[in-house]
Amino acid sequence: RMSEEITEKLQLLDMPYANFEISIHSMTDSDPHASGVDHVEFLVSTNPESSLGPLGKIASGGELSRISLAVQSSTAAHSQVPCVIYDEVDTGIGGDTANTVGENLLLVASHCQVICITHSPQVAGAGTSHLVMEKKIINKQSSAEVKAVFGRSRESEISRMLGAKKGTTSSIAHARDLIEMHAKLESQ
Questions:
Q1: DSSP label at 48?
Q2: How much is the pTM?
């Protein structure tokens, strides 16, 4: 059942040919091991012509991030993990698939803290807190400034992420729509 749910989530995360299975085999010897008496392996295929293979050998970096998100969102209610960090889990995707990533992040966040580094306005709109990091060069030294944005400042930042150098009425409205859409999902 878990494999089927993860496969469904992967297909919604712009991996339409993904297949995910969990292989569980008893160890060949009967001696107890630190990890138990079973060998558990995640198997995945990401292309229609591919057969299942070990996750670490099949998936690319962006695919690994989305597979991790699918596993986390499928198991979040049963996990004791206090915090999950995603670094650009939305790489190579956009549009409605990015909205789906945001929805899955919200699901995980209902069970633990989620920190997500993103350049996607759809994913940023799903967050309940929004931090903006800006690299600065002062006296030939690099530094990073992090600031929290709320309300109109957050709408302006998401508008900027949408591609508007200066917030226009329509880009601000679009940013507001993204924030409100995910806020409604979170409250359900």
A1: T
A2: 0.76
